[in-house]
Every structure is written in structure tokens, then in C-alpha cells.
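Q: Start with the shorter request: fold the first protein.
A: Done. Sequence, then structure:
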Amino acid sequence: MTHATEPAPEQNDQFVPVRKSDIVDALVKDDSFEDAAERDKFVRLCDMLASIYHYEYFATLERLRHEYYYFNPETPPHAAVTPAELDRAYDDIVRSLDAVLKDANFVELPHDAISDAHRRRTLLRVEVSTELSDFREVRFYWRGRHFEQFAVREWFGLRHRNVEAEVYDDVVLLAATKTKAQIGSRRELRALERRKIRPGALLLKYFRNIASGDLHALFPNTRVVMTSFDMLFLGLPAIAGGIPILINLYTTVTVLFLVIGFYLGMSAAVEDKDMKTALTALSALVALGGFVLRQWVKYQRQSLRYQIELTDNIYYRNVNNNAGIFDYVVGAAEEQECKRALLAYHFLSNAEPAPTAAELDRRIDAWLLATFGVAVDFRLGDALDKLEQFGLLKRDGERLFVTPLDTALAALRHAWDNLLSAEK
């Protein structure tokens, strides 16, 4: 499978795929500032907002690390913790992860949508099978998506066909294995032991650039299965080659048993022609064994080829795993929330007349498209509540106002001092 060079236009979502520093630089170059001193004040406001968000999200990062301790597959189980305590801890870690992923503009993807995309897949030729019942819970989250052109090989590489597929920019997978008490069979327990995964672990995986039809392949228990075409491709030659051997064996096998009986003392005598027929039957048995072995090797080779294709398709798209994803998703959530807050403050400070939240969304959408060429369905989220919490935002019905820069800077310094004093 090879990629075409021209991707299709991106679909709109709430994720702002522009660095915070680039947004601040673009806002600073805006002609809405009276002079250089006003620009400097706005830069300081952005820095202070970023510092406060960083401080608060650092606490989120520490909480995630603490809550994940009991479910990290890289640590041994904790015998001193009761099942009830583990259940509460599990609810806490899933709730915290869900919240921080949504702050980072990730959206949960229903399993029905994953199954539907798998049925309509056009890229990955491999047929895969998964068992959701093997897990306590499985969740998928995506962020950013676009349509991309791919060249797909057909007819053993003799022909190529261009297809368009939906591709998710970022995908996070949460897969919780069952606890020992929840595992109902030795097969499930042996499967976990074979994968070196302890019962009750929470597997976290982060991928990038995953086609929607390939999401099924991300499940930890995915296995390659043969398609109907593969069965025909391997089965028809096996039947055609095996029938003559079986016919030959059928006509001579009784004589073979007669000769075996003679050597075991069960028959008095055998004729020379029976010995020749028995040798023919023995040769047919050897040929049948070799034929069966050859077909088994073909099956294993085809399965291995598909397994390699599946691994190559997923392995190089895996960015991080387990506790390693916390730094990324928390940092992403922090940056997204901070960008929303500073954009809201800037466009409210220069708005005449004062806009509503919906009008503010549309103005920021238009600015992002005109400045960076990105189509975003901007949502203020908690940004307005955060500005109001710091005393930077005022409401008059649905109309929104912000305080001047000097007042805003003083309010942020006060908020920062309160954060630091709370630690003493």
C-alpha cells in the first residue's frame, strides 16, 4: 500500500492545530493595539495565563500518575488493595482520563462506528478478529481527521486503484483487562499470560494517522484470520492435489493392513503381489503426509505474510504507551485550553459592540481560517468560565466583556499569588 501525494481537504472539528506561540505572534502583529506598550502587556497576559494553566494541569498530571499506579501493566499487582478499593480507583482513573482527553479536544468513538468502518475498509487487506468480551472495557478517542487518497494494490500487485479514506490524526485507546475474579475461563487467563499482561491492567496506547477502517486492528487481542478468498486460494489446489492420492491409497490400503498383519503374526502368508501393493500404499501414505505438511506450510506462510502486513501498518504509527501518554495528553489539554482563553480575551477586548458567545466563536473561526488556513469549529469550552473566575470577564445578559489589560494583569497576579499561597 502506498500513499498518494495529495490529501483531501480536512474536516472541521474543535481541535486548533496551531501552536500557541504562533497564535500569540499573529495576535501581537494585529493592528488593534494602540502602541508597543499595549502589545507588551498582552504578551505578559498570555504568559501569565499559560503559567496558571501549566500549574493547574501539573496537578492533573500528578493525579493521573497516582491513579494509574494500580493499573499500570508494567508494575506487579497490589495484594494489599481490596477489590472494592480497586473498583473505586478504576472509576477515578477512567473519569480523569476521559476529562483530560476531552480538554485536549479528543472525542470518544462509539464501537458501532468502529465496526461499521471496519466493514467498509478499503486499505488493509488483512481480515482481523477481535473479542470485546476478553476485556473489562475498551474505549477509543480521536482528534483531528481528514480524507486522504491511497493507492491500493489489486490482483497480486498487477493493478492499482486509488481510493479515498477517512484518516484520524490522533487516536488514543483505553483497554482494561478483566480482573482475576472477572475472568471466567482458563483460556482467557492463558491468553493474558501469553501476552505478558497481568489481569486488571489498564492498557493505554496512542497512535497517529490511522485510517478509520484500520481501527479494529488496534485492539490488543487482534488476530489475523483467513478470508474466504484465501480459503479458496489454498483449498482448491489442496483438493485437486489430494484426491488422486486418496484414491490411490483407498485401493491399496487393505492390502497394506494385510501385510502388517503378516508381520505381526496375525496372517499366515502373503503373496509377492501383495507386498508390491503394500509398498505402493506405503508410498501413497508418505505422499499424503508430505502433501498435508506442504499445505500447512502454505497456510502458515500466508498467515505470516498477513501478520507482517498488519504489524507494519500499525507498528510505525504507535507513538506512546501506558503512563508515557500522560505527559502528551495533559500538555495538549493545557495548550488547547490556554489557546481558547487567550483568543477569547483578545477578541472580546477589541469587540464593538460586545458579542455573544456564539458571535465570538464565529469571529475566532474566521480569524483562524484567514490567518492560518485551518477550518475549525471553535468552541470556547471552559475558557469563559476561567476568565470569569480570574475576574477578567463580565457578562451583561448574553453579551460578554473583558477588563482592560492593566486590570487583567493585576487580577492574574492576584490569582497566581493565591495559587502559591495555597501550597504553604
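Q: Next, the second protein, separately.
A: Sequence, then structure:
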Amino acid sequence: MSELQPPYEPSNRFEQQNGLYGNHFRFVLEALPDLTFFAQAITIPSIAANVINRPNPFTSIREVSDHLTYGNFTVSYLIDGLFKTYSSLYWWLNGYGFPRSYDEVLSFLEIRAKRIAIPNPQIKDLQKTNATLLVLQPDTEKIIAEFRFIDVIPTALSDLSFTVMDHDAPLLKTTVTFECTAFELVLS
């Protein structure tokens, strides 16, 4: 994780009366920058504090542990005209999840090593990436907050439906599910 955030300080009086719109954002995935323009929706993962039961002769006393568990998160996106957004995620999943030969494993690792800026990357560095969700002020490019996702890997790519039954040609879209080790919230 990066720099420490200043402690949260609640305000003494309510100063902001406007709600935040959920459609002013930009999602940036370091390993796949092409996906940024086509992202349509993102769901922030859940966070859960683990609880430990401390034995007692009468009842168990619940104590907070020192670990948090982060859920998965999904990104819905449009398929670009050259099919790169889908095929790059497909390639990434197949590269670490279902190689058919050792040559495919080596090819995946070599290509990923060329694309990241780490001099001597470990295998985990080649399989994972980081991502950022920028929450923007409406009608501006001013960043209000950043969600920084650490050690992101795709775990599922949803189905893709082609059809000729619609009168208007629909844009193809799909959803990818990611797991992460943790995420940080940074307020601007």
C-alpha cells in the first residue's frame, strides 16, 4: 500500500448538500489501458472484518481480528471494434489459468514481462496488475476520490451474446470479474 491517509475527521456541521452521481468515473487497469475508454460500470468490492470468538465460561466474546477480507469486483464494458478488449482479457485468463503447453506459459510470461516496467519481475508480477477507479466531479475532470486496487487478477469473463433478432444493431458488451488483495480509498 502507498502513503498513509490522514485520519478521518468528521465535520462539525454539514457542508455538502449535493449527492454524488455514479456515472462520473474513469477506470484504469494498468495491464490493459485499452479497457479504460470502454468501461461502462464498476462495482466496488465488499470489505469484511474478520471476527474472532474469545472463549468465556458463559458466552463467546466477539473480538475484531487484524485482517480484512475484500470481495471481488466487476467491470462491465463495451467490446471495441477490433475485439481487443475481449481478446486481451481472454488471453490473460488463458495465460495463467489454462495453458495447453509449457510453450504457452513461457510465451505468456515473456509478453507480460515486456509490458511491465519492473526490471526483474517475479511470476506474481506477471500474473497480477493494479487498477484505479477515479471518481470525478460532475461535468469536470476534477478527481474527487481514487480507489486503488492492489494485486488485481481477472477470475471470470461473462458470456458474450451475438444476435440478429434486434432491429437496431446493439453494441456488444460483457462483464469481467476481478479479485484483489486490497484496495485503498484516497480522497483528493
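Q: Describe the second briefly.
A: The CA atoms of residues 55 and 158 lie 44 Å apart. Helices lie at 35-38, 84-97, 102-115, 123-127.
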